[in-house]
Request: fold
Amino acid sequence: MQPWAEKFYKSLTWQKCRESFLSSRNFFCERCAKKKTLRTAVIAHHKRPLTPKNINDPFITLSPDNLQALCKDCHRRAHTRGRKAKSRYSFDERGEIYER
Reply:
């Protein structure tokens, strides 16, 4: 996890937003559901990536319009799409992305 994002992702505000959002999607991965497969979503993925410039903008960080419920595999694919198989990013046990 980027140092500038750590405080946000550990905040109670984000934890509540994440849980509420995933619950609103019945904890189903949105990408898998489109393929008629039901997998458990464990990640509230930001469609518009967070950056040091927008990390304090709640319309980006906490907006359901900018979130997507994903399983670990779909989240990994979302962050490695268009890159070589070996990525500089990895995922922790909760599926949160961090830079190696």
Q: What stands out?
A: The mean pLDDT is 88. Residues 12-24 form the longest helix (13 residues). The chain has five helices and four strands. The CA atoms of residues 33 and 39 lie 8 Å apart.
